Amino acid sequence: MKSLIGVINLDHELEELKELTYFRCGAAVPYAGRYRLIDFVLSNMMNAGIESIGVFVRRKYRSLMDHLGDGKPWDLDRKHGGMFILPPDWNDPTDTSQGDLQHFHNNLDFFHRGAGQYVVHAGSRHVTKADLQDVYKYHIRKGADVTLVCKKVDQLLPEHESCVKVDHDEDGNVVDIHQCADHTNIYTEIFIMEKELFLKQVQRCIEHGETHFFRDAILKNPSGLKIAAYAYEGYHAVINSIDSYYRNSMDLLNTGQYEQLFKEDPVQTKIKYEAPAKYLESADVKHSLLANGCIVGGEVQDSILFRGVHVAKGAKIKGSIIMQKCYIGEGTVLENVILDKDVKLTGGQTLIGAPSNPYILAKSTII
């Protein structure tokens, strides 16, 4: 959709996933067997026909750049528009901008050259299948200055405590934005705003020495913006802790949850050409999700194995997440464990965590 410009803002996303964010930003953390967290918001923008997307990053983005490449899986390897990975630029000694405002101010060319009239802003911590075309149509229909995408959850979970919450009237007009712990209407960190208004608000925030666009321009709303709330009803997971990462990952073994995330519009990711998973005669796999390239000779139950995992004969894996190209040696027992990519367990080890506190090994660990 040429009316829209995509902004994926990772500036305020902290490295909250312990060992999983030692070597990468949160947006690059693997999820659901073969994806990265950023794939879901990128795919939402692709499915909405957005042709120009800026990814604003500050820290630990080498892994992210390697994953995104030229943007081809999301149809963003194009001559006009495409995907732009935009770290902040400090070359201007007169620049007084800070926080994510620094990104927007120092990359004004991205906004001016983009043909779209509206900005779709999102992060990577909220995994959704939001229909951004429908959000845009709602925004136009409401005549709002800003439209926030919100999800009303049935049950409050620990990861929701730090989320921004939204109150709105029966017509969808926002009357309050806050962080009350017991409130169930969650802001998904997606909003739509007219581009020129967005850039005016960026400049106003900089002139007032502010650092956080959403907080200082929308939550505080000193300009009296008309703010609408769009009620999103699809799949939603907040990934802002190891507990939320593990629990939401395990929930994907539930057929209903998996289909809600993947059945409709496609989710794209970096393309890797690998053979299907191979099951040896000794393999025993139950209620698990296995990606391409796996070779399994042991027992796997209630677990998620990413691409290229090798499970030797006699190994036992239960309730665990095993990332790309890990090797699990003979006689190894894993229960409630998360192994980052390229971990090698030579054999005979026993690693046991708890569902509320899984045992984690960082990338490239060898035992």
Automatic annotation (TrEMBL):
It comes from the Bacteria. Keywords: Glycogen biosynthesis, Nucleotidyltransferase, Transferase. Pfam families: Hexapep_GlmU (PF24894), NTP_transferase (PF00483). It is an enzyme of class 2 (transferase). Residues 17-177 form the Nucleotidyl transferase domain. The keyword Amino-acid biosynthesis does not apply. GO terms for biological process: glycogen biosynthetic process. GO terms for molecular function: glucose-1-phosphate adenylyltransferase activity. InterPro entries: ADP-Glc_PPase, GlgDAde_trans, GlmU/GlgC-like_hexapep, NTP_transferase_dom, Nucleotide-diphossugar_trans, Trimer_LpxA-like_sf. Its EC number is 2.7.7.27. Residues 282-350 form the Glucose-1-phosphate adenylyltransferase/Bifunctional protein GlmU-like C-terminal hexapeptide domain. Belongs to the bacterial/plant glucose-1-phosphate adenylyltransferase family. NCBIfam families: glgD. This is Glucose-1-phosphate adenylyltransferase subunit GlgD. The lineage of its organism: Bacteria, Bacillati, Bacillota, Bacilli, Bacillales.
